[in-house]
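Possible race condition, two jobs.
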Amino acid sequence: MDNVGGSSSSNNNDNSGIKEQDRLLPIANVGRIMKQILPQNAKISKEAKETMQECVSEFISFVTSEASDKCRKERRKTVNGDDVCWALATLGFDDYADPLRRYLHRFRELEVDRANTNDPHDRDDLDQIPSTGVRQS
């Protein structure tokens, strides 16, 4: 019998009953990110977007799980940016961990500056943070 309107077991993918729509990044966001790196006239198939959606969602879960395990061992409940950087490095993604650490450091500096100037809505300085090494068009 079909499970109309509900989540079938095949959509849960062994993620503790999490629905696929809650497990995956929105496909429109994935497509938008993919288009940023491609020439303007390039097209992206639905299959390519769906494949990338699965990959990036799995990658985020993989890194977050590693960071969460670290926090659990340290008896902390909150995963922070340093934990994510640690997890990336631990999992062998140093090419991403190092730029992310630099970004995080600069972000924190700007947050302190912003707090000192009492302008919490001024986010333009984030555009001045050095690139994470990912090419953008």
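Job #2 (started ~2 s after job #1):
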Amino acid sequence: MRHPRTDVDDHAGAAGGHRRGEQDPGARDRIVNWESFARFMVAALRRESSRRPQDRFLHDLIDELRRTDPMVAGWWDDHGVRDYASVAKHLRHPVAGDLHFDIEVVVAPHEPGQRLIVYTCQPDSATARMLPILASWEVTATR
């Protein structure tokens, strides 16, 4: 069940990513640049925690991540803070191969709790050529 106010798995990223990494050991293999991506997300999570010091749900979740993942604990102790602007993500799909995305996180100026996460890829890249194929698989699978 998601917390009605914070929904940390969606907007903080690190929490959801690390939870999936613990629940699905293959997730760390599928995200080729997992460590740099996870470091970025932990630093973003630190920023979010400083914005909301009274959010018990968020801080409990951070404590859980630090307790259950030594890498998160180490990165947290580095005291890095990161804005949500942009990050690269390199995925290894079991059939499609390597997919490279740039992720931009857009924050509405008057609604700082709302974020739009946009995955893009370079035009004419292998990733751009593979996306319509992957999308067609989903359409076929749901018919």
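The chain has one domain: 8-142.
Logs attached separately.
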